[in-house]
């Protein structure tokens, strides 16, 4: 270890590690790294809210710290393109327009998000490649290829005047990745040999012993479905799972089935990956969605987005038989090739019940053998990275507190080979390093920003404030719908009760029309959808919101109430 600091000039400035999100909580990963006056940011993610955050669509970290220090922020560095790492970018850019660095695929996904927000023109996107180095102020950043459930993912080796910081991003150590792009363990080990000041490493799967299975392990299980499905095969997976989509395309070619992609995100990401040469589409294998039902059932596979039971997703709509291109028929096989993200259980089980009711043979991720493997490394992989990097200081990242704590335990054996200290930081708690050592630093303001409908002008401080503001300014609207338990039909015209929403209370015409809007939503829904309160509440809320915003330019809090009579 003697040569560790040999090349470093002594410095009076301190290095600060400032987690803005993703430590002590699941999702919305973002971290600022500051040396003296210069700041770089690693990732700017989002999380999907819990059910209790009713009406809120997106949650992002509070970027106030960066806004307050905007003249010091040199750039945003992206590890990969998952939503929990890039989903907050439009909201960050609205506060400060920093240059963004990421791999081509990651940036293509970012571009799509920015386009939705009409922010692409001003954005400064810079493509980087694994193996390249980028100089930003006092930082020199090397991009190191890692394996994960997504393609084009990198870890970062950030050289600072005080030493090297290794940030793993999300990773698993897949010895046989489907694209044959191996985890660059060699470079990581090289840094380890030369001496690493601080390791920041993914803790998501620290609870799982052993090794995470290779993505390749999914192929024979999916192949089994291709072989034994007598009719249509319908597979739902994350649209970002490019590895898995490649496996499905290859199997389809081999087994003489055509592939139709369903869902907005599924179509967009497959197109992006294909354009960048990351997804190989065999000749003649693609089928237009509208041709699905007219093709011989055992000659097709439909790949559908919406594994988490999101009410408006393609899979949810297929499940309640309300998708224009696909109807599940008895004997079809429906495979959910994804994990259940905690918090989504209810929505997913509800969707599964609908699918089963259609007479489909349902296969899902947790079955044995599973048709899904995780993209995050288990304990032995985390240990491998710890052993290769051999940092002086260690901060577990990406996880709830219990996972961070367990990851810290996993690193304890390294105290014999130079590990001096491990810090359990939660978002907002900072770490300070100078030439004397590392210690906890001041806390910075962090928090969650809840956003309605993903638009920038609907940013709200938190739920309580949001509700209060809504109630005080725009009031609330309660559509009350009585549905006959047996027939699934609406009993009479829906009632609408409102408080503080003057637009409705002062104009009977708008009120009458609003009732018609709700009725129309009900009538345009299938009998099965009408029995699903979650789906109906979301549809009524969306339709009524659109109508009221257009008529009144106000946004009251809308809480549909469905009564079974
Ligand atoms: Zn990820
Ligand atoms: Zn992640």
Structure description:
This protein has 17 helices and 27 strands. By secondary structure, the chain is α/β, with parallel strands linked by helices. A hairpin with a 2-residue loop joins strand 8 (133-136) and strand 9 (139-146). The site of one zinc ion has 6 residues, from loops.
Summarize the structure.
The protein has 565 residues and is an alpha/beta fold. The protein starts with 14 loop residues before the first strand and ends with a strand.
Strand content: 15-25%
Overall mean pLDDT score?
Answer: 89
Name the overall outline: globular
Low-confidence region ranges: 1-8
Bound molecules: zinc ion
Query: Termini separation (Å)?
Result: 75 Å
Largest sheet: number of strands, sense, barrel closure = 8 strands, mixed
Q: Radius of gyration in whole Å, from Cα?
A: 25 Å
Helix content: 25-40%
In terms of quaternary structure, the protein is single chain
Contiguous helical run count? 17
- The total of beta strands comes to 27
Please list the strands of the largest sheet in the order they lie side by side. 7-6-5-3-2-1-20-21
Keywords:
single chain, 565 residues, alpha/beta, eight-stranded mixed beta sheet, seven-stranded mixed beta sheet, 27 strands, 30% helix, globular, disordered N terminus, binds zinc ion
